[in-house]
Backbone:
């Protein structure tokens, strides 16, 4: 199949979050399965023209004016190309979506990306069978394809929109309808209107042929008022076209047997070096490891310090928990109030807590390898990756049963248990889950069984790519039936 894949960020060229990782790893996995991938993304300031080949140019007319971009590209493999839209006025900025505040012309910037991706396919004579869109930044392409590209070389293409996080929707004043030339007949609740504004993500949901999101549980949750963020009704209407497919893990990067960031390596068959990595982690963080044979568990947090990640629960629960014998190590940044909360707890219990504000990729690998438990008590979690990293590194995840956390972690109460789960979003429920983890740690034989089961779980991109391939094929069959 030929697949046009549009995304506002693609690792290693640009990144603010997990979307960039998916936009590299999924096309790579699909290309390895024999498909032809053309990925279209902006050429931000971080991407140098000298490293790219000039492929052509596109010109698009909007009511606000004519905009053009040079198309540059690079080949990641014989089947995997990345094309960049070089429009300095839109994309050569300090940040991808914001500087000191949100860019006020984001509706123009990402409408250009959405329609520009379709134009690039035409310029390069790449006639896709599937057009795979990602989040609100490219969702407008589904509307454009439906309303403006029939009878063109894109006529046979089916559109698929992946919703990575429904909380981010691309909502703009309704004046954007006129600026972008969107038909006013679509400014209605069944179209793109959203509380008297225009909603790009909603446009994608309405006009895409199929929808996916990043875990089966999250696909159900976004159809509820609690986690649908105002789009639950329209998503429920499209439930037959909505698929939950877990994101994958790149086990070339996240493998405790070969990890270049680790001094020692280990596998499910031999966990002995994990204890050495634990002692190295404690030493690096200034915490004193107990003299052997004493054992004290380490609970890790590697996260954005924001309310979505359940950090408020952690800060409420820790004063109760720290009466027990354990260490807590934290790596992350985010809400200033949460950062200060952890620093204050560290000052109160300096022999039990270590806090590193910021992010360090190398240290993140040591956190995963050297810890016994990983805390992810998220309020909501579309997919989550750290719990899957933790499973592979024999670090038992303690998670709230939501989204991808619920899909990837089996509670230790079951025969196939790989982690500790809790449901109520309360500090007391999190504290109870941590006490269950402490009980597990007190039984080393059972702990090793749980660790080994988690390490053998397969959450690779190969599995996820096969599921996407199945959805693509169903769209091709549907398109053939309609043709």
Residues:
């Amino acid at each position: 199949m030929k697949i046009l894949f549009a995304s506002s960020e693609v690792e290693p060229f640009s990144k603010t979050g997990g979307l960039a990782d998916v936009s590299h790893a999924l096309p790579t996995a699909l290309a390895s399965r024999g498909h032809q991938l053309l990925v279209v993304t902006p050429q931000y300031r971080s991407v140098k023209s000298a490293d790219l080949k000039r492929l052509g140019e596109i010109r698009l007319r909007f009511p606000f004016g004519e905009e053009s971009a040079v198309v540059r590209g690079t080949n990641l493999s014989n089947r995997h190309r990345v094309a960049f839209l070089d429009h300095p006025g839109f994309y050569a900025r300090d940040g991808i979506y914001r500087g000191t505040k949100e860019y006020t012309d984001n509706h123009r910037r990402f409408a250009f990306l959405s329609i520009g991706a379709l134009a690039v396919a035409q310029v390069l004579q790449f006639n896709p069978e599937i057009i795979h869109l990602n989040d609100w930044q490219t969702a407008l392409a589904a509307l454009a394809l439906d309303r403006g590209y029939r009878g063109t070389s894109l006529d046979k293409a089916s559109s698929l929109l992946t919703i990575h996080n429904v909380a981010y929707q691309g909502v703009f004043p309704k004046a954007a309808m006129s600026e972008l030339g969107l038909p006013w007949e679509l400014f209605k609740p069944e179209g793109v209107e959203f509380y008297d504004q225009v909603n790009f993500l909603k446009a994608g949901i309405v006009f895409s042929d199929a929808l996916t999101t990043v875990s089966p549980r999250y696909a159900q949750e976004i159809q509820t008022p609690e986690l649908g963020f105002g789009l639950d009704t329209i998503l429920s209407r499209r439930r037959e076209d909505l698929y939950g497919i877990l994101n994958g893990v790149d086990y070339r990067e996240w493998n405790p047997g070969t990890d270049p960031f680790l001094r020692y390596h280990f596998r499910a068959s031999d966990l002995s070096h994990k204890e050495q990595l634990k002692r190295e982690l404690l030493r690096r963080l200034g915490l004193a490891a107990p003299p052997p044979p004493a054992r004290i568990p380490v609970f890790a947090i590697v996260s954005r310090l924001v309310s979505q990640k359940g950090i408020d629960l952690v800060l409420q629960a820790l004063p109760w928990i720290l009466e027990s014998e354990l260490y807590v190590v934290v790596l992350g940044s985010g809400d200033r109030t949460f950062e200060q909360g952890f620093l204050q707890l560290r000052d109160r219990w300096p022999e039990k807590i270590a806090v590193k504000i910021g992010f360090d990729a190398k240290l993140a690998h040591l956190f995963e390898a050297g810890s016994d438990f990983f805390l992810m008590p998220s309020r909501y979690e579309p997919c989550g990756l750290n719990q899957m990293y933790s499973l592979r590194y024999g670090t038992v995840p303690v998670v709230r049963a939501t989204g991808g956390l619920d899909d990837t972690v089996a509670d230790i109460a079951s025969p196939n248990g790989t982690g500790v789960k809790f449901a109520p979003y309360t500090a007391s429920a999190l504290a109870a889950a941590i006490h269950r983890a402490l009980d597990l740690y007190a039984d080393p034989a059972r702990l090793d069984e749980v660790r080994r089961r988690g390490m053998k779980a397969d959450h690779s991109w190969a599995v996820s790519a096969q599921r996407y391939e199945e959805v693509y094929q169903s769209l091709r069959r549907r398109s053939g039936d309609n043709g």
Observations:
- The first strand starts at residue 2 and ends at 6.
- The chain has a mean pLDDT of 95.
- The radius of gyration is 24 Å.
